[in-house]
Design a protein that fits this description.
CATH class of the largest domain: Alpha Beta
CATH architecture of the largest domain: 2-Layer Sandwich
Low-confidence stretches: 1-21
Number of helices: 14
Largest sheet: 8 strands, antiparallel
Mean pLDDT: 89
Oligomer: single chain
Number of strands: 20
Length: about 450
C-alpha cells in the first residue's frame, strides 16, 4: 500500500472540505503569464462568500472559467474567489428568462433550458465560460441585432467590498450596472444575473467565398437586411488576406442533417486534428479555407447545437513548445479593408503565425462604461495566434501587438481587453477614454481597493 499517496489524498480532501486550496502559483490559460497568490477560496454559498470577504485582508480577485489571458484573475499576493460552486440556475419559461449564479457555465445553462426549446441570445463561441466571467468582459457573439451580452441582461446582483448585496439594472443602481458589465471585477463580485432568452430553432448554414473588397457591400445589402439570418460571422483567408468566407445561419424548416442537441464535450475528431496541424504546417492553411465551405454548406442543426462548441475544439494539444493566444480588434465597418492591409503587413514583417481571422459584427454599445464597440458599427476581428512559449517570443509579441493596436487606433477602432497585457497604458487610455469613470465608481464603492487584479493595477489605477 502506498501510504504517501493516501496521505496526499487526505490532505487534498481536507483542503477541499475547508473550501480553501493553498497554492501560491497561478497561470493563465496560455501559460504565458504567471502570478502568486496566498489562497484560493471556492465558497458554496453567498453567506460563505460574505464571510471570506469580511474576514480576509488584501486584494481579492475573482475567477470563473479562467480563460482570460492577462492577469485578470489574480493580484500578486492576494486571494482568489473561485466561483465554480456558485452555479444555481432558475428558469422562468413563461417570461423566457433565466437567473444564473456567476459560477455556472453556459453549457450548464444550455442543458437547463434546452428541454423547453429555449436558447441563449448572446454568448461567445465556446460554452465552457462562466456567466460571471462573460459578464465581466461583456462578451459578444455572432448575433446581428443584439451583439453584446449587456443587451440581454435584465439585472445583476453584486456583492460590494463591505459585504452588502445590491441589485443593479437599468433603473436601479444603473451606474453599477454599467460599470460591472465589462468592468473586469473592479466594482464587486457578480453573484447572479437575470438574462432574457430566445427560442431554440433549426438553422441552415449558407457560406459564400468572395473578395474581401466585396464583403462590406454584401454585408450591408444582404446580411444585415435578411431577417432569416440568426447567426453570422466570416473568416478571412490567412494565406492572401484578400479573400473572405461569409458564414450565415438561416432559420429553416428543413430536416435536420445533425440531430444531436449539443456537441460532444470531449472534442477529438479529424477536423480537430487537422486544426492542430495548422499550428506547424502553413501549407495546411491553404487547404483548410475552401474545404470548410465545401464540407459544411447546407448543414441544418438546432441553434443550441451550433452554440455548444467546447474550447477543446481549438485548444492546443500541448503548450510545452508553443501556445495559443487570442487578440481582437474592433474596427469601424468602413475601415475594414484598411485595417486588414495593416494587419497583413505587420503579420508578414514579424512572421506571426495567425491561424484564423474571424469577423463578427458589433453594434455600438451605449451602456457599458468600458464599451469596446464605440463606433456606430464595427467589425470585430478575432485573431487566433500560435506562438512559442518563451520569454523571447513574448518580447516579440509585445512589439507587434502594439503595432496592431496603433493600426486599430489609426482606423478609429479599439482592441479587446481580456487578452495578454501587451498594450501601453497610453494605448489603453486612447482606446478606453471612459476608464476614469470606472475608477471613480470603484473609489466610491470600494475605497480600499479590495477588488483587484493585475489588469486593474496595470491599466485602471
Amino acid at each position: 500500500m502506498n501510504y504517501k499517496i493516501i496521505y496526499l489524498s487526505l490532505g487534498i480532501l481536507s483542503a477541499l472540505a475547508q473550501n480553501t486550496l493553498c497554492d501560491t502559483k497561478i497561470n493563465d490559460v496560455s501559460h504565458l503569464t504567471t502570478g502568486h497568490v496566498k489562497k484560493i477560496y471556492a465558497p458554496y454559498s453567498i453567506q460563505e462568500l460574505k464571510t471570506i470577504v469580511g474576514n480576509t485582508k488584501g486584494p481579492i480577485a475573482i475567477a470563473g472559467g479562467r480563460f482570460s489571458q492577462g492577469g485578470h484573475i489574480w493580484a500578486e499576493n492576494g486571494i482568489i474567489i473561485d466561483t465554480k460552486n456558485l452555479n444555481a440556475i432558475s428558469l422562468d419559461t413563461h417570461a423566457k428568462t433565466v437567473t444564473v449564479q456567476a459560477g455556472a457555465t453556459w453549457r450548464e445553462v444550455q442543458a437547463k433550458i434546452d428541454p423547453y426549446n429555449l436558447s441563449i441570445k448572446i454568448m461567445q463561441s465556446y460554452n465552457d465560460f462562466t456567466i460571471g466571467g462573460s459578464l465581466s468582459v461583456n462578451v459578444h457573439g455572432r448575433m446581428l441585432m443584439e451583439s453584446t451580452l449587456i443587451q440581454t441582461v435584465l439585472s445583476l446582483k453584486l456583492m460590494l467590498a463591505d459585504g452588502s448585496i445590491v441589485t443593479a439594472s437599468r433603473t436601479e443602481n444603473s451606474d453599477l450596472f454599467a460599470a460591472a458589465i465589462g468592468g473586469y471585477g473592479a466594482i464587486g463580485i457578480i453573484l447572479e444575473a437575470t438574462l432574457s432568452l430566445t427560442e431554440n430553432e433549426k438553422l441552415e448554414l449558407h457560406q459564400v467565398i468572395m473578395p474581401l473588397s466585396d464583403y462590406l457591400t454584401y454585408f450591408k445589402n444582404i446580411i444585415s437586411l435578411d431577417p432569416s439570418i440568426k447567426l453570422h460571422n466570416a473568416n478571412i483567408s490567412v494565406t492572401d488576406y484578400s479573400t473572405i468566407s461569409s458564414i450565415s445561419w438561416h432559420e429553416s424548416n428543413k430536416q435536420l442533417t445533425i440531430t444531436d442537441r449539443f456537441k460532444a464535450h470531449n472534442f477529438l475528431n479529424a477536423e480537430h486534428l487537422a486544426f492542430q496541424m495548422v499550428r506547424y504546417v502553413r501549407s495546411v492553411q491553404k487547404m483548410r479555407f475552401p474545404l470548410q465551405v465545401m464540407k459544411n454548406t447546407g448543414t441544418v442543426v438546432w441553434r443550441n447545437y451550433e452554440m455548444s462548441t467546447p474550447v477543446s475544439a481549438v485548444e492546443p494539444t500541448s503548450r510545452l513548445i508553443t501556445t495559443a493566444i487570442l487578440q481582437e480588434y474592433f474596427i469601424p465597418c468602413d475601415s475594414l479593408e484598411d485595417f486588414v492591409k495593416h494587419l497583413h503587413k505587420i503579420a508578414q514583417q514579424h512572421s506571426i503565425n495567425i491561424m484564423n481571422i474571424s469577423v463578427r459584427y458589433v453594434a455600438k454599445d451605449h451602456e457599458s462604461i468600458m464599451a469596446y464597440g464605440q463606433a456606430e458599427e464595427s467589425f470585430a476581428l478575432v485573431l487566433y495566434i500560435n506562438m512559442r512559449n518563451s520569454s523571447s517570443s513574448i518580447r516579440k509579441a509585445t512589439i507587434w501587438t502594439r503595432q496592431l493596436i496603433d493600426a486599430a487606433l489609426s482606423c478609429k477602432g479599439t482592441y479587446y481587453l481580456p487578452y495578454q497585457p501587451y498594450a501601453t497604458k497610453q494605448q489603453f487610455q486612447k482606446a478606453y477614454p471612459r476608464a476614469p469613470e470606472l475608477l471613480a465608481i470603484k473609489d466610491r464603492v470600494d475605497p480600499q481597493h479590495r477588488f483587484m487584479n493585475s489588469f486593474i493595477q496595470n491599466y485602471i489605477l
